[in-house]
Amino acid sequence: MFQPGAPAASPALQPDSVTNPLPMQRVELLDDPQEWLAFGRPCTPAGTPLAGSAADSASADPASTAWDSQVVLEGMHCAACALTIEDALRAVPGVVQADVSAATRRARVVWQPGRVVPSQWMEAVRRAGYRAMPAMDAFARDQRLRESRRALWRWLVAGFCMMQVMMYAWPAYVAQPGDLSGEMEQLLRWASWVITLPMVVFSCGPFFASALRDIRLRRVSMDLPVALGMAITFVVSTAGTFDPAGIFGKEVYYDSLTMFVFFLLTGRWLELRLRDRTAGALEAVMNRLPDSVERRAADGSFTRVATRRIGAGDTIRVLPGEAFPADGRITAGSTHADEALLTGESTPVARPVGSSVTAGSYNLQSPVEVLVEGTGGQTRFAQIVALMESASLQKPRLAQLADRIARPFLVAVLLAAALAAAYWWPSDPGHALMVAVAVLIVTCPCALSLATPVAMLTAAGTLARHGVLVRNLQGLEALAQVDTMVFDKTGTLTRDGMALQAVRPAGSCSAEEALDLAAALARQSMHPASRALAAAAARQAPLGRWQVKGLQEDAGQGLTATVEDVTGGMVARTIRLGSAHHAGVASDDSGAALQVVLSEQASDGALRELARFDLMEDLRAEASAVVQTLQQDGVAVQLLSGDRRGAVQRVAAQAGIARVQGECTPQGKLAALQALQVQGHHVAMVGDGLNDGPVLAGAHVSFAFGRSVPLAQSRADFVVLGDSLALVPQTVLLARRTLRVVRQNLWWAAGYNALCVPLAVVGWMPAWLAGLGMALSSLLVVLNAARLARDLPSLPGWQGSQPREGTVPVRPDSLAGSPPPQPLDLSKNPLEPV
Question: Is the pTM of this model over 0.70?
Fold first, then answer.
């Protein structure tokens, strides 16, 4: 993992070009503790990342605690490879935990510095036949580009050789008896052998290298049966070319071999490209920080340095199109920033001089100078990256099942091929070997190993782009089975504030004039009721008539001020805004919601009511559509809250929730949740993540909702970064779609083998067709998963966008099912914590 703000690297690791990859023969340079933050973070021995002062102290003394490091792997192709690397790492003393993902080709290693250093466990990976590189931005990208270029060249060579060999094989297919002389037929065989040889050496080289490595280490992987098939086909054809009168001289199979290799490489190359675009979306988010940045030197000039060299107190210049590499404050220039990763909201946010910027957001408009204030693992971006890395290496239950059966299945494939060859050998040895080749190729379980992880990672990448972090891939499977959704109220169904529900003017004062006059006073106060009035007034065209003088605020009661009409139409007036008692009018005992009263002091000292403002907790605009969508999809919705029963019932009525329970303690919420689980329900919990830890952990699957969630401490399976409640049902719908795709992939992989293996055993499937089937099976699995990379499922009934922060919608005068308003007691904060 690339961590901004890591200590400066040693000179050997800092080439002139910050994008040059690390020479792997000098991997021992990574044993320097100053380099560990560049591809890892301190954690507990159990693998839990440290936060706060604990992480700071661990960074100061790296050898004092365990470390969680991320590496990119080269040379692996399947689930069996992942198991081999895991076994090699876990055998190293001092390695506490090792998790390898075949889909992302990354590994997470938790190790103890007192017992082992990075070069030692990386050497264990090398001895297993693979190559590990630090998961730094430049290294990962460079490795991906090299792999893609090599795959393309192998595919091109295989395609050229296939076309040439088919040209030489075509006469044998169309010639009538006697048309081809023996000398001409032998010449065509030799020409095909010469053309096939470079393809076998270059295009098939990685398969043979992997197979030899497996034989040397006495293990099996998915490359072993494929390499055996290639070798048997080439050896049989070569024997027929050199000895036409021998037992294998009846027929050669260069055309089948070249077609098989071409189809296989086509499938792998397309699979590689698709995986970079789908499951690779996670890595694209994690690798969004720039490799280098312009830092101000002592003489005032800017020089480009590696991002990990910057620290708190530095001044950097960020150009348009670049990501901010650290948290900081703009000191020169102004711009707009794209903070979609951090909030889920794609609308650019204005960032003038003095405003703060966050690591991972993009500078969209103009160059700005930024004073760096925060780097390293304590930035929100670093926490997001840590969660995504952890999720990308998790193995869902279905993927673990595929991993467990991979090796036994490959052994069964080898035995089946041997038995098929033995059965056909007495009648035709050459045909017997080609039947064995077809069995080896067609039964390779690549599609089975990719069926689950590619779909899960694609869905996780799609959610990450829309502001939902998947902390637990297993949560996608659990979420697809949910039949009950339990919501918290404050900070979840409602925003952290209040909203104006209705304006009820008295006398000749209009609603617009009353709201404008009240807002003139409210803008001078930070009380939640005042902020709601000011925000509501900002949504209508301001009259701008009032100048406020001599404002006084009675804590918990209200505001008193003298206002003058700047247009000159009226004399100075004494205005009061606050509770009914403060305004000097009678209380409204008619019902429920919170209320603020605006009054004017007459010349005789009497107070005359001008208007009443009904306030309510700011229910999210999409809440009712969210509840309705969940219910239509068969998910029962309930509301559990620690707030007063009246307030909870009002919110539930507005959102359309029938089952409500208020005044719940955290233990009471957990007990209610467990009661649902005892009844056989699969329950999802949606909370603000701040004080719902026990109930979030106790649910089958959970969402932490709200920007204030400490990501490193959240116990939820999904973390909603943005401010849209609509992401919850969209995630449910995507999880169901993901599970359908996984099942389709598994059924396809199983059905393909059930159909093709018997055909190959009885000799009805040539090698080239077996290769085409193998390539298409893997490609179809990845293409099916790629459908999950589209936009999130739409939410019926909710087409609008979220109000921008700082604005509050004005509700209609009456809401169906809502109780009448209650008087506002400004002696208490109406926003009670839940």
Answer: no
